Amino acid sequence: QVQLAESGGGLVQAGGSLRLSCVVSGSMLGIDALGWYRQAPGKRREMVAVISGRGIRHYGDSMKGRCTISRDNAKTSVYLELNGLRPEDTAVYYCNRPADTWRSDSWGQGTQVTVSS
Predict the structure, then answer these.
(1) Which residues pair with 92 in a beta bridge?
(2) HEC states along 44-92?
(3) Which H/E stretch holds residue 37?
(4) For 19-60, how does the pLDDT look when each residue is reduced to its tens digit (9 = 90+)?
(5) Are 33 and 19 in contact, with CB atoms under 8 Å apart?
(6) How far apart are CA 24 and CA 47, in angstroms?
(7) Torsions phi, psi of 31, nearest 5?
(8) Torsion angle of C-alpha atoms 57, 37, 90, 24, degrees rounded to 10
(9) 58 with 111: CB under 8 angstroms?
């Protein structure tokens, strides 16, 4: 069982930046790709960025060009650098394994990002 703990969210003004962190613990067998996702009030959860075990990155359209995903395999952590934040980026941000996103019990608490105008 993999446990995921997100942190780093907060309240920021439009145009600001945040760095989100996710520590992965528990069973590490088979962990490859890790991703960041977000869910805004009243909207479906969407993929923000995914990084493979080899460091290949893929970004969703919503924040492409304004975020950077990275990972530290030694620390079993994945990070998301957010820049040029907009009020529409306000959401709860989650990390997860892409292979587990279909499982409702695989999601952690997430970290709230609120962007004021």
Answers:
(1) 39, 112
(2) CCEEEEEECCCCCEEECCCCCCCEEEEEECCCCEEEEEECCCCHHHCEE
(3) strand 34-39
(4) 999 998 875 545 678 999 999 999 999 999 999 988 899 999
(5) no
(6) 18
(7) -70, 125
(8) -90
(9) no
